[in-house]
Write a sequence for this structure.
């Protein structure tokens, strides 16, 4: 199968109405809705760095798109179009079949059209660029937090880190726990509806890709502020609680990457809105602390107060 047959077989699908020209020309032509701004992001996934070597092709496809959609969610954007730069060691059609099924499952859920890309030979690497839109002036930046705002996170934290540990075998899991932790790592849920619902209320927002402390740290740095966290209120799954009860460290759960939950700040007068939005989106939202003047992150637990390092995953 040559390059063009491969593209046709695995990557040409139904296109949205706002795609004037999709796959098949030199570049895609897209129609942006009036009164909106475009929001665009790109992420590269490298085998062994962004996913364990033996991750299934389906999960690689799913996650490659999910991490991009999560970035758009964190801006409050509606995703629309994606391009895919795919470097493959060979034209293994079984792998491509599963990869494209994983990617398109998520694309179809969010009505995202794949409108172009590039296909080359080399070490496996997947770059997806995703573009969406927000009403003019509505994108939620990292820099908008204000002293006194409440800090919220969606879902539970640290499960993807536990999923990653399951590959190294350092922590032992039952079969069902191992499966659910790996699902959190390999098939993250981009919180698109949640992100869009928060557009009028959140002052700052980020998706948790490097670890909660590191990513909250980005909001604080961009906003020139500090945070005080109530460590007793961190939302944790049953699995994460079990890990802690067996002597595990909370800091691992707060510094591990790949949760793809949203972390955002909200003025206290909008707290009720957060509850309503949580119900509407079917996604738990937990207030874990407050934004303070100054810099750094302080964590309070029942017996002590500690300064927390905004550490997380870094490539260099
Ligand atoms: P060009 O040489 O003009 O860059 P290509 O021959 O690389 O074009 O690609 C032909 C068409 O197929 C283009 O429309 C391109 O966007 C699309 N395409 C190439 N690779 C992919 C891919 N992996 N996924 C989706 N579209 C792709
Ligand atoms: Mg090309």
């Amino acid at each position: 199968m040559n390059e063009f047959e491969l593209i046709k077989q695995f990557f040409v699908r139904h296109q949205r109405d706002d795609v004037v020209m999709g796959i098949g020309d030199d570049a895609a032509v897209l129609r942006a809705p009036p009164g909106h701004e475009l929001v665009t992001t790109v992420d590269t996934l490298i085998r062994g760095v962004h996913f364990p070597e033996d991750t299934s092709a389906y999960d690689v496809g799913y996650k490659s798109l999910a991490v991009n959609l999560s970035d758009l969610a964190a801006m409050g954007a509606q995703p629309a179009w994606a391009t895919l730069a795919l470097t493959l060691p060979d034209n293994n059609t079984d792998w491509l079949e599963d990869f494209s099924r994983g990617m398109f499952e998520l694309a179809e859920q969010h009505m995202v059209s794949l409108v172009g890309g590039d296909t080359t030979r080399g070490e496996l690497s997947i770059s997806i660029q995703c573009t969406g839109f927000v009403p003019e002036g509505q994108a939620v930046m990292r820099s908008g937090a204000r002293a006194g705002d409440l800090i919220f996170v969606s879902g539970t934290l640290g499960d993807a880190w536990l999923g990653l540990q399951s590959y190294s075998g350092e922590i032992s899991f039952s079969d069902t726990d191992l499966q659910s932790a790996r699902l959190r790592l390999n098939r993250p849920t981009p919180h698109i509806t949640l992100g869009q619902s928060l557009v009028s209320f959140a002052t700052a927002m980020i998706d948790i890709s490097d670890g909660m402390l590191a990513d909250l740290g980005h909001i604080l740095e961009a906003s020139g502020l500090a945070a005080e966290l109530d460590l007793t209120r961190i939302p944790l799954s049953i699995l994460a609680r079990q890990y802690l009860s067996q002597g595990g460290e909370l800091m691992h759960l707060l510094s591990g990457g790949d949760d793809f939950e949203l972390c955002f700040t909200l003025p206290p007068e909008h707290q009720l809105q957060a509850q309503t939005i949580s119900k509407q989106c079917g996604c738990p939202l937990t207030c874990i602390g407050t934004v303070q003047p100054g810099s750094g992150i302080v964590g309070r637990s029942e017996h002590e107060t500690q300064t927390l390092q905004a550490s997380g995953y870094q490539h260099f």
